[in-house]
């Protein structure tokens, strides 16, 4: 209201005020006239004197007051000079809500998108692509291995769960524009049933700030109140619940990521380069070295061991992991002395008759066979012959080391089978270790001493593929080789010299067994070693099939589900934020922006204590307070209506 400027003195003014207060004691506020619609909060507490002047005198006084205050009508000039100008609406267009909407939509979405981008960037840049590996630290299904410290990764992932709950107030502020538009529409059409009650308005304002306390009140009100929610309240509560659930889901996945992220790996594979696991051994003299340093046993589930050409235990660095192919031999032997009718009738005589292709007497080096044959005569007499069948009737190849070999015609290697049978006869010049051996039916003791027995062995050659990791071999797989491998072996074994010595040494090891079966099994293993060592010098070194060096590192094993879940929920959160921003822009107008600003604690306070209220088109809510325009002379205080009952009142100077 406007007040006239007069020339009365301060004493006269004070006297008039005292007189008015004495004349109006019955107008002091009470609870009764408060209940009759007297506004104690929204209106200023001013007391007016009651006089007995007539209506004509009152009209004349009003006209005089109007003339005296004409020069105080606000204009643009004196408005700029801080003259109070509150009742007239402020100039429209001074506040652009669209810029505010765009800024807060970006603030609600860009951080979550950035967090997802950072997590994916860390994963892509530091992801270790695993291969088929024998390492215990090999990645299990459902995990990523990254070369990035676990503590830093967890710290980055926790950004989302920390920020998401704090963005609820921003996204709810965006949705408030849609709420304000709906409230304007329902108010203009006077749809009473669809307007909120006073307490629902409290809930609406609290939900629009993202308050969890008001969200709980909203849920409790829905359970206990007899009043139905206005649709504006329902939609606002639903939006806040959705964003709170998204925040809880992000928090839960982040917690799961904290508990399941590990650092189990101490090393990983670096960039691979191919090299020879075994260098070329082209000299026939190297097979003795190969026998003891480069032959490796591997079990395939059968009674016999597979012996293949592999690296010496100290020749390959533990920092090298590789997959290679090589050759292997497996020999399975059984005693058949009784089947061959081996006996010791007199002196040193030990006749035998296994078949028409393998018979004779172990007393002397006499071998009656048309098959490929060989012998080793050192401390012991050991000789054998190769056959295609286990009855020793079909020779593997038709030549013998005891014959003139100048005109021998043999089959080419690729036409020969990769597996064959071998008949082996033994005559030992001294007894065997175990006292149980003389009682073994497959061991014959000649009259002049020593021991004799015959074995039937099946020999097979293989192409072997294996993996070496951390100094150990595994993932061994085999396929039968073609006949060339067996042909190479059989072309060397009949030759005198080193093969014979190695066979004798293998026999010395085998006869340490406690039975004929143990002797047969061990001799088969030793023979496979001899065969591989014979084959090794013939082959050139092969390049590895795959190879990687290992470098030490602290790696992190990250579970895929929670990590990708956080990324996806961050993106969903950002999309919802952008969607609400678009909805706010679509609903925006000067009137909607004014109502949206007024649906807040600021707006409620301005509506109660400011003359223009808290919803002024084109003005920010802060500009609805006179103190932000003219410096402010209004104060808010308490007025005691009755003992123990207080009201907020506006006090002016």
TrEMBL record:
Stretches for region Disordered: 1-79
Transmembrane domains' residue ranges: 100-124, 153-177, 198-216, 236-257, 561-586
Start-end of Polar residues biased regions: 14-25
Protein name: Uncharacterized protein
Record key words, sorted: Membrane, Transmembrane, Transmembrane helix
Keyword Membrane set for record: yes
Keyword set includes Zinc: no
Basic and acidic residues composition-biased segments: 62-79
